[in-house]
Amino acid sequence: MEINSEIIRENILKAKQGNQKAFNFLLDTFWNDVYGFLLLRTKNENDAEDITIRTFSRAFDKIESFDDSYKFKTWLITIGKNIHIDLLRKQKSRIIHHSSHENDDEMYNIADDTPSAEDILIREQNLSKLLRYIKKLKPHYQEVINLRYFQELTYEEIAQKLDEPLNNIKVKLLRAKKLLAEIITNK
């Protein structure tokens, strides 16, 4: 099926009415455009993906304010650009604040790359193919799938646990499920 402006317009209208399939369609249709734009700006895959998730979250939150006299892709990219600019400003203010209050005794949180007890257990017990496929996802996608489907937390509980907005969690889960489906169908 060819995606034309009429199909996009119909899905935007459906999304404004809360239709989840329309949100999925818009996410699938515009993900690569927004991600590609942000990857060029950030030059970092993780940052680009994080900002893309935030972009769709904010866009879906504010979809009723979208003016269809503009292109939806342009609207999304503008949101992404603004989020990126905000993050750069925050980083700059943190650097200025940090350098003016340096303390030699300060400790930093450094990510530990060693396998967790869960990773070792999964490896030792050779769990099902599904778990191996899930492990191919990026860590933040693994985490939301684990919290939602293995720990059976609600979206709200996941949002609280990860200290992220509810819509970010919904978009992350949606994206994680789509990537997982791609991994499974490619095997």
UniProtKB/TrEMBL annotation:
InterPro entries hit by this protein: RNA_pol_sigma-70-like, RNA_pol_sigma-70_dom, RNA_pol_sigma70_r2, RNA_pol_sigma70_r4_t2, RNA_pol_sigma_r2, RNA_pol_sigma_r3/r4-like, WH-like_DNA-bd_sf
Name of the protein this chain belongs to: ECF subfamily RNA polymerase sigma-24 subunit
Gene3D superfamilies: 1.10.1740.10, Winged helix-like DNA-binding domain superfamily/Winged helix DNA-binding domain
UniProt source species: Zhouia amylolytica AD3
Keywords: Sigma factor, Transcription, Transcription regulation
Pfam families (alphabetical): Sigma70_r2 (PF04542), Sigma70_r4_2 (PF08281)
GO biological process: DNA-templated transcription initiation
Family to which this protein belongs: Belongs to the sigma-70 factor family. ECF subfamily.
PANTHER family hit by this protein: RNA POLYMERASE ECF-TYPE SIGMA FACTO, RNA POLYMERASE SIGMA FACTOR
One function term, GO molecular function aspect: sigma factor activity
Lineage, highest ranks first: Bacteria, Pseudomonadati, Bacteroidota, Flavobacteriia, Flavobacteriales
Domain RNA polymerase sigma-70 region: 32-93
Domain RNA polymerase sigma factor 70 region 4 type: 129-180
